[in-house]
Amino acid sequence: MSAALTRAPGANEPLPAPTLISLDAMGGDHGPPVVVGGIRDYIRRHGGEGVRFLLHGDEAAIRAEMTRLNVSADVCDVRHTDKKIASDEKPAQAMRRGKGSSLWNAIEAVKAGEAGAVVSAGNTGALMAISKLILRMAAPGLERPAIVASWPTLRGVTAVLDVGANIESDAEQLIEFAIMGEAFHRAVHGVDRPTVGILNVGSEDIKGHEEVREASRILREGGLGLNYHGFVEGDDIAKGTVDVVVTDGFTGNIALKTAEGVARFISTLLKEALTSTLQAKLGAVIAMPALKAMAQKIDPSAINGGPLLGLNGIVVKSHGGADAKGFGNAIRIAVDLARSDYMQTVGANLGRLGTVLESLPPVSASPREETVS
Amino acid sequence: MSAALTRAPGANEPLPAPTLISLDAMGGDHGPPVVVGGIRDYIRRHGGEGVRFLLHGDEAAIRAEMTRLNVSADVCDVRHTDKKIASDEKPAQAMRRGKGSSLWNAIEAVKAGEAGAVVSAGNTGALMAISKLILRMAAPGLERPAIVASWPTLRGVTAVLDVGANIESDAEQLIEFAIMGEAFHRAVHGVDRPTVGILNVGSEDIKGHEEVREASRILREGGLGLNYHGFVEGDDIAKGTVDVVVTDGFTGNIALKTAEGVARFISTLLKEALTSTLQAKLGAVIAMPALKAMAQKIDPSAINGGPLLGLNGIVVKSHGGADAKGFGNAIRIAVDLARSDYMQTVGANLGRLGTVLESLPPVSASPREETVS
Fold first, then answer.
1. How far lies A314's CA from each of A23, A36, A103, B5, B72, in Å?
2. In this structure, are A94 and A131 located in the same domain?
3. pLDDT at residue B5 greater than cutoff 60
4. Could you report the per-residue pLDDT of A209-266, keeping only the tens digit for each?
5. In angstroms, rounded to a whole number, what is the distance separating the alpha carbons of residues B222 and B217?
6. CA distance A248 to chain B (A)
7. Is A180 found in the same domain as A235?
8. Which of A244, A261, A370, B296 could lock B235 by a disulfide, CB 3.0 to 4.6 Å apart?
9. What is the pLDDT of residue B358?
10. What is the DSSP-derived secondary structure letter of residue B311?
11. Which residue of chain A is at minimal alpha-carbon distance from B128?
């Protein structure tokens, strides 16, 4: 899907420098085996041409995995550090004590301009806090990085953000999420003009609270040039009604976890049903190839990798429990973002947002209806 | 489950008057066939002893259905009206023009003390607005009725509220939802001390925005006597971690619709998988009895019927597209609520809430952490 973004150099262009991806090799539940395994998986699936890796962590453990998994030293640099951040370390503590850790050093490589992106499966709170500290936010309105969830839908994948840190979001922040989510979706999923919707309790303009109605009005009238669809409801996410669903981090986080809970609930019922009787077991065995093909469509590894958007640099969070295939997918997202014009597009659009906000007429006293039908 | 609440009269008590349930016979997509069918279904499943029905709407159409479905005139009174509220009528318009309609008259019967509860499959906005106009809210802090969703879980059914009208809810409203949801769950599901959780983005006390943290503190310290569990996350809903999940109407509505979308997404994938090849079809046919039994566990008809809580009277909303079995379940909920001490418990607890709020020490300046792990 992202082939168009890999941009083979034209005849007159010089060969581009390789894309360097900085990796926190010690993060997550598994550390080096999954990180090095992720490199191998990424190269196997995507070729890995023009990509190099910079691994931060326990050099001996990393090199042992490289040998075991037959990952060439030609594509990997290793920078040793003994220090790592624990999975349960609080963000404030991680910021105070994290300097020199694998996570810290991995982000520093992006700040220094050495790496094009960083991937870590470490503690989300620590990753977010240290990324913000080292890289800083890309716009004054942004308080915390937004986390994107890639949501499997009937039509492909929809980006939902924020699913994390921004518990309360005003209209301006919601529009910033729209700008960043749109550029992300184009860079990673190769969609030319991704459609954007704001999550609400109804599709009419008068539904919802002030923040979503104001954000919707600005996206509709403000000339930001996004392909704005309007409001969408919860069931539109899995339908794939739009490419990018924008919401505050409280609602987004609850929607995501609720969905995970429902998926697990149905899969538990299904497993129980298909093992409940001898006859059901027989049917399940016969239908197994089709059921396995279905399970692949909703394989969490295939959608692993949530970028933290809004920073001056590309940071991709891999799930702490992800396997090598999952980590490989997070690497793919980092590479696609690093090679695209994501940072420039977002920078330009965030810059225009200030002008748009000033030029808009004040909110009209529109009627408000809070009941849902 | 609710057998304990049907309370057979003791030897010294007089036989109680029958419970009269007022029905809007013209509401929903189907009108009389489903409403009269719902009565038949309710009687068939639950006996219907001591329950009578008061049907409002087109008398000829209602009586024709009673004849067709063999529902005895002994248990039904019919009050004719030509007028009905359209499914797309706006709440404000319905309030102005709705007097004398089947929906209006059905609610009036509760207000007059004639009926113990009302069930309507009509337009939610109109039902909510007219219920509030006629019955009034039960406490000054309540602005709009809260809608309860009965959510199938791995451990049974969890009540989630508000999933509807209260777009922004402060701490006091969230506690009112807790009080009402707890009493509802006890009355309808026969659980003696239902556990209550507040929906949040993490389980620690410092997570989330001020409203949820304040509500949680009051439920924990305020001596309201609820069986308060603490914060729950989105995936706890389908796990059945608690009996009652409390949230604002914006988050609750989005969580509910997101869950419906995911359930539909998975069921679509499953159907596609099980019809994708001849072999898969064969397996599906063999496993069909087990798959059907599973489908029954998540049958929407079995959980249809969402009460509008917080009114001076019991109003149950049936889904507009519900079938007779679904409408029958909404009737069951109305009967269980009308026969329980739901109204008294809620009244007493809401009364105590004012005292609790006054007696609590002010909020301490607790640290706040918005990142999620």
1. 12, 20, 14, 59, 71
2. yes
3. no
4. 889 999 999 999 877 889 999 999 999 999 999 999 999 999 999 999 999 999 999 9
5. 8
6. 10
7. yes
8. A261
9. 76
10. B
11. A371
End-to-end CA distance of chain B: 38
Work out the average pLDDT over B119-138: 93
The amino acid occupying position B91 is: P
Yes or no, beta carbons of A287 and B269 under 8 Å apart: no
Predicted confidence at residue A1, as pLDDT, reads: 39
Q: Does A233 touch chain B (CB under 8 A)?
A: yes
Q: For B254, phi and psi rounded to 5 degrees?
A: -70, -40
Do B369 and A233 count as a contact with CB atoms less than 8 A apart? no
DSSP A191-220: -SS-EEEEE-SSSSTT-S-HHHHHHHHHHH
Q: Within an 8 Å CB–CB cutoff, is residue A204 touching chain B?
A: no
Instruction: With beta carbons under 8 A apart, name residues in chain B contacting A233.
Output: 254, 257
Q: Please say whether the beta carbons of B110 and B315 come within 8 A.
A: yes
> First and final CA of chain A: distance in angstroms?
39
CA A250, CA A247: separation in Å to the nearest integer?
8
CA distance B6 to A359: 64
pLDDT score at B15: 62
Nearest to A177 by CA among A187, A186, A166: A166
Nearest C-alpha in A relative to B292: A273
Contact present, A121 and A28 (Cβ < 8 Å): yes
Q: Is B351 a domain residue?
A: no
Q: Which residues of A touch B199 (CB under 8 A)?
A: 254
Range of the domain at A327: 1-6+17-136+311-341
pLDDT at residue A180 greater than cutoff 60: yes
- Closest partner residue to B251 among A168, A251, A293, by Cβ? A251
Residue to mutate among A262, A271, A296, with most B CBs inside 10 A, is A262
Q: Do B258 and A261 touch (CB under 8 A)?
A: no
Q: Is residue A176 within 8 Å of residue A246, measured between CB atoms?
A: no
Instruction: Please check whether residues B248 and B336 belong to one and the same domain.
Output: no
Distance CA A41, CA A64 (A): 17
Determine contact: A166 vs chain B, CB below 8 A: yes
**Side chain identity, residue A311:** L
| pLDDT tens figures, B196-209 | 999 999 877 778 88
By DSSP bridging, strand A51-57 and strand A244-246 are: unpaired
Whether A26 contacts A82, CB under 8 Å: no
**Pair B233, B183: CB distance under 8 Å:** no
User: Averaged over A295-309, what is the pLDDT?
Assistant: 84
> Mutating which of A213, A265, A270, A308 best tests the B interface, going by the most B Cβ atoms within 10 A?
A265
Residues B245-263, mean pLDDT to the nearest whole number: 94
Instruction: Let me know if residue A76 belongs to a domain.
Output: yes
Structure tokens at A133: 């500290």
The domain that contains B60 carries what CATH number?
3.40.718.10
Q: Is A206 on the interface with B (CB under 8 A)?
A: no
Rounded Cα distance, A253 and A163, in Å: 4
Structure tokens at B124: 């939610």
Residues of B in contact with A269 (CB under 8 A): 294, 297-298
Question: Domains in chain B: how many in total?
Answer: 2
Amino acid (1-letter code) at residue B219: L
| Cβ-based contacts under 8 A for chains A and B | 242
Residues 317..346 of A with a Cβ closer than 8 Å to B: which?
none
SS3 state at B321? coil
ipTM field: 0.86
Q: How far apart are CA A233 and CA A240, in angstroms?
A: 11
Contact criterion met (CB below 8 Å) for B217 and B121: no
Does B151 lie in the same domain as B135? no
Whether the CB of A296 is below 8 Å from some CB of chain B: the reply is no
Asked whether residue A258 is domain-assigned, the answer is yes
* Same domain (yes/no): B43, B161: no
